[in-house]
Description:
Oligomer: single chain
Radius of gyration: 27 Å
Helix content: 55-70%
Strand order of the largest sheet: 1-2-8-5-3
Bound molecules: protoporphyrin IX containing FE
Shape: globular
Strand content: 5-15%
Largest sheet: 5 strands, mixed
Number of helices: 21
Structural class: alpha+beta
CATH architecture of the largest domain: Orthogonal Bundle
Number of strands: 12
Amino acid sequence: MDNVTETILLTSDTSSATGYSSTGWKTYLIAALPVIIYALHLRATRRRVVPKGVPWVGLRNEWFAKIRANMRELYHSKQNIEEGYQLYGKHGKPCITPNSTFEAEVVLPPSYMGWLVAQPDSVLSIYEVLINDVEFTYTSPRSWQFHRPFHVEALNKMNLNLMTGVMIDEMSECLDDWFGAVPGKWERVSVQASMRVILTCITNRVFVGKEIAHDEKYFHYSSHYVHQIGNCAAMISHLIPAMLKPILAPLAALPVRYYDYHCSRYLVPLIQKHLDDATAAKDSHHEERNPDMLQLMARFAAKSHDPLDHDPRSLCARILALNFVGIHTSSAAAMGAIIDILCAGPDVFAKLRHEAATVLRDAGGVWNKAAVNRLVLMDSTLRESLRFSAFKARGVERKIVQKGGVMLPDGTLLPEGTKVGMPTTEIHMDPDFYDDPRTFRYDRFVGKAEVGMVNTTDTFLAFGHGKHACPGRFFSTHELKLFFAHIVLNYDFKFFDERPKSKYLSDFCVWEDHVYFETCRRERSAHLDLEASS
Ligand code: HEM
């Protein structure tokens, strides 16, 4: 017997004598492992709260019914929301809709809207929803580390009147590329690709200025950033168990962090320059009259005492996050609008063209904010499209952050961490709120000043509602009205005989395939025809 074997035998003998055999210890550990993992999982998923006493929809009579309903949600979300609305929402009651992220959401009835929007941020938080949905902790940690969200304030300070010329320039250039520049030549164009690229170009131009916006590599990195952030967030929230997130999510977020890094190489030096200029201008009281978003943000930053606001990398992350929220939403709105207009047919199109031509002729052939504001039919058409073709079925989503939870008007207690929201699409299609809701009526809102495209109401939720209603809606409304006016003036179209099909992925509405339309550049803008004939 050698020394080592002897030692092992001795050790083993000793442990048997004391009642602790190493095999027994390992067995205990192996048996306890699932419990330890489960305890860690519970701790890591403590935010996944499922309130008691609220009925579920989408359940079937089967084993593990809730887990399976959550897993089915990716393709059954709209059905669940419809069912919940008919069974509960219409009767003033909340219900739980499953979610493929396993974070079930309490959908509230429309009658609770006043209560929902009256809650302070210390009770219901939109930020927790945004940070969670986009997995900002991993995909873009810097973009939500700030004390004052002045990127949102900068959005509201944007001078849309002075920006109009820049926007028209950018639109014309992009439309030449995508819709065709040769009069009389018909082109076949993808709705999804064209709207995504054109809206990205306009947003980039207005946000970061011409030089960087027109840099092909910046366009590549920034548009990939916008698309990857959604993919990475979906992968993190759907595929990575919460307890493994700290280890695996940073890896899953690498693609978006790569594009973020490349965008920052363009933006950080420019932001530093704007910060220096803004600091100098603060002392000399001289500021450029037509600043882009980055310049506006630098002005706010220059006046701030928070060191984080002077970090160009932080400002860069914030503008990229704005790009993400702004580009997806406005391109989805533009896709819905062009499809709705081409389905509405030649009469509606002729009326929109006539209005745009009259307004532009009366404005002397140059668009400005006042002229865009006079596009009443276009405003109603685009608002109707946001109602009719809403691209997210649940909206006004908030997370309960108040310790101890919150009591709903019917006395139900929802615990801290519960996500709540409104059934946007069902409210938009409810005959109690809209006459003949399943018909696209382009002129539905004409003559009702209180329901212009930017106005949110209890029953028009495309931009959310309440104090957190989309701050980008003034910019987007102006941009989309200008864009569609420019299109109807300068292009002819073939109309759709049949509406393209859409489907839901979770609660997001997407077009089933690539949808194409045919368009042809006119000899000249229709307002010049009007001028010639009058
Ligand atoms: C047609 C285009 C757009 C649509 C339909 C849209 C829709 C929305 C919706 C539904 C919300 C949630 C509001 C709530 O829950 O009450 C929201 C929030 C927000 N949107 Fe938009 N949006 C659009 C364009 C933009 C643009 C262009 C920007 C910026 C460039 C932007 C920036 C934001 C921000 C920062 C928030 C969060 C507001 C907050 O936290 O208080 N949006 N948007």
